[in-house]
Every structure is written in structure tokens, then in C-alpha cells.
Amino acid sequence: MFSEAILQKGAPPITRDQAAQMFPLTHAPYAVWFNSDDDEGNPPWAVNGADGNAMLDVSSHEEAAAVASALKLQDALSSEMKKTSLINDELGTIALEATWEIEGLTNLIVKELEECPEVENLALRGIALRVKRLNSVIMSAIGDSPNATSDDLASLRKRMVSPF
After folding, report:
1. CA 52/CA 136 separation, integer angstroms
2. Smaller CB count within 10 Å for the chain: N or C?
3. Main-chain phi, psi angles of 34, to 5 degrees
4. Which of 52, 34, 51 is nearest to 42 (CA)?
5. Contacts for 154-160 with beta carbons within 8 Å, 24 or more apart?
6. Residue 45 CA to its chain's centroid (Å)
7. 64 or 2: which carries more pLDDT confidence?
8. What's the confidence (pLDDT) of residue 61?
9. Residues forming a β-bridge with 45
């Protein structure tokens, strides 16, 4: 007799045939099903991936359910990250192009004002340098690797708050 108690702790054991009836083969994404036809000695529980194909065999229903939940959560998080990540996105390209133009404009302003020592020009030059610095932070945040480390993030924050 197959000894897995899957419905509740302390439930009576079920047979392999019962497990196969309760959890039949399916191609639903993240589904858990019982593989009663396996004669090769593989673990009897299968977990499907996002594409609905079996991707993993495990020994218990509890383990299979945990893996399926983790896979579903991982895919959901990955989906959310893709929505918020600008790196491979047309919005990211537009933002980068805008920052490149800001970079060019601030370079031009700073260059023109370097030769004018008047106080007003020095203040304007300081503002242009600050805009240039903040733009550089934006460019790095948008264009750098999506796998930024905490050190990378700390460096960006430091660049953002320092005046030049």
C-alpha cells in the first residue's frame, strides 16, 4: 500500500491508484500530479513549470505543492520585475535617450559658462553641474545591469546627494 497521507495530517494512507485519480496527469501551469505509470523508480509526484510541462519529480505531495507554489511566486515576481524594470523596455530606451540629451545640453552650458566669471554665470554653472550629476545618476540607474548589488545602489545614492 502506498503510504502517503496527503489531504490532512493524520489522514489515512491512500493507494497509488487513489493518488492517480485525485491528481491526474495535467498540463496546467504549476500543477502537481501523481505519476502512477513510472516504472523507472522516479519519485511519483510531478510538478509542472509555467509552460505546463513536467519539470521536476519529487517524493511527496507536500514537497510538490511547496515547489509548485514557489515556482508560481517566482514567475509572478519575475513578471512584476519585468514590468518595473526599464532596462529592456522601450520606456527605458526613451528615458536613456532623454538623459543623453540632457547630458549634451549640460555639457554645452558648462562649457559656455566656464569662460564667463560673472557671479550669475557661476551660479548657473553650479546649477548645470548639479543637473549633470543627477542626470548621471539617472543614466546609471536606468542603463546599468538589472542585477545591481547593494554596493551599486549605495554608490548611486552617494552620487545623488553629493553636490558634484
Report:
1. 44
2. N
3. -100, 125
4. 34
5. 159/133, 160/133, 160/134
6. 28
7. 64
8. 84
9. 34, 58
pTM higher than the cut 0.85: no
**Confidence check: pLDDT of 27 > 90:** yes
Looking at every residue in the chain, the average pLDDT score rounds to: 76
Can you read off the three cell numbers belonging to residue 154? 549605495
Parse the chain into domains and list their residue ranges.
Answer: 16-84, 90-161
* Torsion angle of C-alpha atoms 22, 26, 32, 34, degrees rounded to 10: 50
